[in-house]
Amino acid sequence: MSKLSDAAEKGVGWIEHYRDEFSPRRGRDPYEQTMLLKPCAELMLTVTLLGRDLSLRRRLRPIISWAWNEIDRGSLIIDLTSAKVELVEAVGLCADFAQNGYRNDRLRAWLAHLVATRVIQGLELTPWRYVAFRYNLQRLGLGGSPSLPTGSWLGARPEPWTISVTSAYPLTHEVFYLTDFGRSPLNLAADLRDYLQLWLPAWQQCFQEPENLDVLAELAMTAACVRTDPEQATLQLLEERQFDNGSIPGPPGAGRVLPSPREDPERRRFLTHYHATLVGVLALAYRQWSTACESEPPSAAKRLNL
Amino acid sequence: MTPEVAWCIALGQQDQRDSRLAIADYIRRDHCTELSVGQLIDALLLWYFDANPVSLEVAVPVVVAALDRPTLGSYHRLEQQTVFHLSERVLGWAITLPEGESGMADYRVLSRATVAGLYPPATSTNEALVSAARAACVMLHSCFYVQAAQALTVLCGQIHLSGEQSAMNLLVQFVDQSYAHLTALAVAHGSAQLSWELRLMSESRRG
Predict the structure, then answer these.
(1) Which residues in chain A are closer than 8 Å to B140, comparing Cβ atoms?
(2) Backbone phi, then psi, for A134, in 5-degree steps?
(3) What are phi and psi of B54, to 5 degrees?
(4) Any CB–CB contact under 8 A between B170 and chain A?
(5) CA separation for the pair A8, A59 (Å, rounded)
(6) Residue B79: CB partners within 8 Å, gap ≥ 6?
(7) Which of B130, B166, B174 sits opposite A306 (nearest CB)?
(8) Mean pLDDT, chain A, integer
């Protein structure tokens, strides 16, 4: 595995330094704690992906151990999902803990029960959330492989210039989960991989002006998942915009819905930038986590030297 | 109406005879006595598309409006070649301009050279082809429709040149989608500029 770039190193340092801000216990009540499962789950996903690199796994192990304690070794998830079946983030969080060897038999039995209830058939999830949910159930051994449901942006393979912020997030996440974050790019049909390899560089250009680093980082990660190097301009922009403390600026209004007791400015700044920082670090460190396990037959895109 | 739009309306007349008269009318107007090299190329292309040869009565005022002035303004070397090539075929005599600028030509210049059959060179790479497709995508996304059509015209010329047909499906689909979209936009906005670019794109698609 290659060494982290200076910018990625700074970003990982920021994650370590601001670790405590990711705790769901920052919420004042179960409602706020449930909302704060999202940043915590995103932290765990980031750490799990970076942990595909052996040296980063050793380095980041304390964060996983800390997070496990923050959710009371799984009991907090049982408490929160007992009151409100907010399963998508909870299942993702549990899947990352399980992948890192942290298990709670009571939690697993509880999730297995919830997954067997009828409400699971009627969660009214958007296509990308549905894929995310299925991906994480599979990781927990509670379901089969995720597949692209009808009605997804990616499944429609739309005219490429129609991409927008609202479609970029779903498409990137559909690719993440369907390819197991680049481990199995062949889970995508060959024509879909061609489509992505052809248009991802153009899409990265689209979000440089006006600049949206959060989307750019997601697109760079998506490129890595289909075995295409992210655009150099994207990585350079992430490096140039990175703050001295290692964080990466989120788009205006990012994290606004997440609770910030007493509107503490420092906390608000964290909530605005944490997501762009996590995905920015993953984009900058893509070589550490995106190595595919499958050998890929030459695609049309490869024949065009894309 | 800007002179640029008036020019495109003149170019865009459906009837062959009407468009020639419209160009002549455009030049007769006081504020339009000078044409750029790019406009001269467009006029030559219009005549190039026509089945009937253009008369000297129509052609000479256009050529004069483009050339009869102290400075021609800046133009690219490829435009100089395009003027030479088209004038020889359309008028029967070649217009030789002084050496144009070198360096990277933009998609407007490349699109005209493509329709004239001067671009892409036989050595053109798949990388150039994919670059044109991605540039068109970004321009469409940014609502720069005229520039997008120019990049698409170049792309069409490159697709014809490429031997890798099976890998072209995505690009051919993109060209079809873009052409349909731009055509609908040109009608919806009543854009003469876009209509003219689509005519060039259409010629390039035919190959």
Answers:
(1) 161
(2) -65, -40
(3) -85, 145
(4) yes
(5) 14
(6) B37, B38, B41, B97, B100, B105, B109, B112, B113
(7) B130
(8) 93
Q: Give the pLDDT confidence of A196-253 residue by residue, as tens digits.
A: 999 999 999 999 999 999 999 999 999 999 999 999 999 999 999 999 999 999 999 9
pLDDT on residue A262: 74
Contacts of B125 in chain A (CB under 8 A): 305
Strand partners, A211: A208
Report the complex ipTM.
0.90
Please tell me the total number of residues recorded for chain A in this structure: 306
**Which residue type sits at A56?**
L
Measured between CA atoms, how close is B192 to chain A, in angstroms? Answer: 23
Interface test with A, best of B124, B127, B170, B179 (most A CBs within 10 A): B170
B141/A195 touch (CB, cutoff 8 Å), yes or no: no
Paired tokens of A47: 């750490």
| DSSP-H helix ranges across chain A | 6-17, 30-35, 37-50, 54-70, 75-83, 87-99, 105-116, 127-139, 153-156, 165-178, 190-206, 213-225, 232-241, 265-284, 286-289, 300-303
CB interface of A with B, residues 206-235, below 8 Å: 206, 209
Phi, psi of B76 (to 5 degrees): -90, 155
Contact B170 A306 (CB under 8 A): no
A159 to chain B, any CB pair closer than 8 A? The answer is yes
**Residue A305: per-residue pLDDT:** 60
A146: which DSSP letter?
-
Chain B positions in Cβ-Cβ contact with residue A306 (cut-off 8 Å): 130
For B108-124, the pLDDT digits (tens) are 999 999 999 999 887 78
Alpha carbons B144 and A205: distance in angstroms, whole number: 14
Average pLDDT over residues B159-170: 78
DSSP 8-state secondary structure symbol assigned to residue A152: -
- A vs B: CB pairs below 8 A: 58
Cα(A22)–Cα(A247) distance, integer angstroms: 14
**Token pair recorded at residue A208:** 């440089």
pLDDT beyond 60 at A9: yes
Least confident among A67-81, A139-153, B10-24, B52-66: B10-24
**Tokens matching residue A292:** 């595919």
Are B137 and A160 a contacting pair at CB < 8 A?
A: yes
**B-proximal residues of A, 175-204, CB under 8 Å:** 191, 194-195, 198-199, 201-203
* A304:B133 CB<8 A: no
Between CA A143 and CA A141 the distance in angstroms is 6
* pLDDT above 60 (res A1): no
SS (H, E, C) B95-134: CCCCCCECCCCCHHHHHHHHHCCCCCCCCCCHHHHHHHHH
Q: Which one of A194, A304, A306 makes the best mutation probe of the B interface by having the most chain B beta carbons within 10 Å? A: A304
- The half-sphere exposure of B106 on its side-chain side, counting CA atoms within 13 A, is 8
